[in-house]
Amino acid sequence: MPSLIIAPSLLAANHGEFAQGIQMIEETGLGWVHLDVMDGHFVPNISFGPQLVADLRPRTSLFFDVHLMLQKPDRFVEAFVKAGSQRLTVHVEADHDVAQTLKIIREHGVAAGIAINPDTDPRCLLPFLSSVDLVLCMSVFPGFGGQSFIPSVLENIHFLDQERRQRGLNYRLEVDGGINVETGLLCIQAGADTLVAGTAFYKAANRQDFIKKLSA
Ligand code: DX5
Ligand code: ZN
Q: Which of 34, 73, 177, 214 sits in a 20 to 30 Å window from 143, CA-based?
């Protein structure tokens, strides 16, 4: 299993002070930021677009892990790559030819990820697992930060970890939504190696302590 990565979600930072939100991640020594892009169609909320990614790019060397919650993600691959994204993760439930979108992402020279919602059967990912470098298991219904972790998702994580081992694949297994110390450790036990944390990271009284507890 790859070593643990914690990716704070900028969605939970103050949207008037994104640069400060980035700085808070850098201060902890973590290397990734998770950027949640929402279009108001695929999910019932709107967050930010490629302009924010482009404007943050020169300010940091953090890895930009971009989660596209878009109904038509293929239409925006180029814009998000040009803006400086290093991975684009698209949803299997969105309205697109999934294999084709993953191919387009890779052809643009960035890593490709595939995401599933909590109630989607993870077996629908089987045809795509060999062409992604990350699988994202949503542990809340996407759209908003600050929701509670859905425990049944641990089964999806376990299934996708088993599949990875049996087939000798090496995608990262990321979990996103309602991650705190308790739920994060359950995800790691189930086979996850990459944890997205929004609210728990930005609202933590002591961020280093939060990271240390998850990494123990
Ligand atoms: C939900 C987003 C998540 C979420 C994480 O649509 O994809 O990244 O905001 O935030 P918390 O950790 O607050 O659940
Ligand atoms: Zn996300």
A: 214
Of 106, 138, 118, the C-alpha closest to 34 is 138
Q: Please give the distance, rounded to the nearest whole angstrom, from the Cα atom of residue 72 to the centre of ligand 1.
A: 20
DSSP helix/strand/coil, 211? helix
Question: What was the pLDDT predicted at 216?
Answer: 84
Tell me if 175 sits within 8 A of 139, measured CB to CB: yes
Judge whether 117 and 125 are in contact, CB under 8 Å. no
Tell whether ligand 1 has an atom less than 6 A from the beta carbon of residue 12.
yes
Positions marked catalytic = 36, 176
The model carries a pTM of 0.98
Query: Phi and psi for 46 in degrees, rounded to 5?
Result: -125, 135
33 - beta bridge partners?
A: 64
| C-alpha R_g of the chain | 16
Q: Which two tokens stand for residue 152?
A: 């049944």
At 119-128, the pLDDT tens digits run 999 999 999 9
